[in-house]
């Protein structure tokens, strides 16, 4: 079996070191100081991370193929590799939602036929009246309306359904449907979906996680006032983790203009500068566990017409270099929220493959960032089928030097 020795500066959450690793048969088989003459050597400007994972994406691909004009599993995978991402978890708000054994299996087969190089974990949807599948999957519950038909009109309905999901892994889109309804005629998108909707939904999600002993996750978190609630829930022993997106860390309502309002629209919406700063601080202190993009591709025409969601997979790794060079995040922190924590989230479903660490036995997927070579994001370099990025024209301080997927170099 052919083996590859890589030399460079490696990073896990607990340490950063210079040395070598050996990849064989798609797996990391050895980690040491001097294993032999290296096949590849990354210089001192580079950081070699375990392959990064984005556990909140919308690949838009299902058996109906009605949304594949804006993305499919192949183009989403290409965008992921372009952004340095080796494993993703795909959301269920498709026209044919995977909500039971049969529809989930059909989506798995559809995915397998696309033959993509990256690992894709599929969420199953929770909607009114659904029941758990007969095998282990991660679930997603949309509390209120967003994009697609999979949502609840009242929190009481969600409670009733969740009673059947005791002990399961459930991710929550936190926006209270009844409060959204009260604000629906406000003037702007962010006024129609104010922070209090997310805050109220957070309280409810935490209650559900406690009541039904869920392995809970809060998606695309954006409200500063909610962070103490999450910390308190953890202090009480609840199993709850939390995502944050690039857009909620980079933009706030002060960035909105008449010209960009269409494509700067997403759910939950951009918040105040204080919220954005609170998200950065909470990613620093570990209250937020995952950098997860909520990659939500739509055509620019659809965004202009009022649909919510931005594409972000292509720029994942470059965005991370901004966190490191301009927001003071250490490589070890990045290894936690981009690799190990997302790996820990999907590993129950990816056996025998283990993602997220540079360690013998883990998959030989790696993301190598170069902190000395800036990148300007340009439309022609994107792989997402929707063909645009909110970061077009932005220069990030670093770039993606290499991506390895199961031992093979893909970039
Ligand atoms: N976040 C969004 O604004 N849009 C998502 C749906 C969602 O995650 O709410 C989409 O599927 O387009």
From TrEMBL:
This is Dihydroorotase. SUPFAM superfamilies: Composite domain of metallo-dependent hydrolases, Metallo-dependent hydrolases. It comes from the Bacteria. The keyword Transmembrane does not apply. GO terms for molecular function: allantoinase activity; dihydroorotase activity. It comes from Symmachiella dynata. Keywords: Hydrolase. The gene is pyrC_1. GO terms for biological process: purine nucleobase catabolic process. Its EC number is 3.5.2.3. InterPro entries: Amidohydro-rel, DHOase/Allantoinase_Hydrolase, Metal-dep_hydrolase_composite, Metal_Hydrolase.
